[in-house]
Amino acid sequence: MNTTNKQKHVILLLLFTIIQGYPGLAVYTGTKFYVEGFSQTLRQEVCKFGIRVTCIQPGDVAVEDREKTHPDPQSKDLDTAYQAGKLLDPTDIANAVLYALSQPENVAINEVLVQNREFPL
């Protein structure tokens, strides 16, 4: 089978804590910083094989059972945004992935930060 025409692309989804750490989430945030560094190094190592590596960093996305993912009662800003409909829709993130995948072979979209313009990080 000839695989030369197949696209080779690694997509990594990183949460917004890569940009800013929060008290109580030190280990979690540290792992996100690790993945960012890993992706930068991986990108350099695999580009010679025609493989692209893209990090998609979504802001807060509207999901079912949101209170299970954000149980902190101090997250009033997030609650306000959730109630006002200012969280991202999962299709917004899917569109960012499709954008990265749809680029010509000579173009690499290395990082994409996706956030609601009315609720920036």
Automatic annotation (TrEMBL):
InterPro entries linked: NAD(P)-bd_dom_sf, Sc_DH/Rdtase_CS, SDR_fam
Keyword Transport: no
Signal found in the keyword field: yes
N-terminal signal peptide: 1-21
MF terms in GO: oxidoreductase activity
Name of one Pfam family that matches: adh_short_C2
Keywords: Oxidoreductase, Signal
Family listed: Belongs to the short-chain dehydrogenases/reductases (SDR) family.
Protein name: Uncharacterized protein
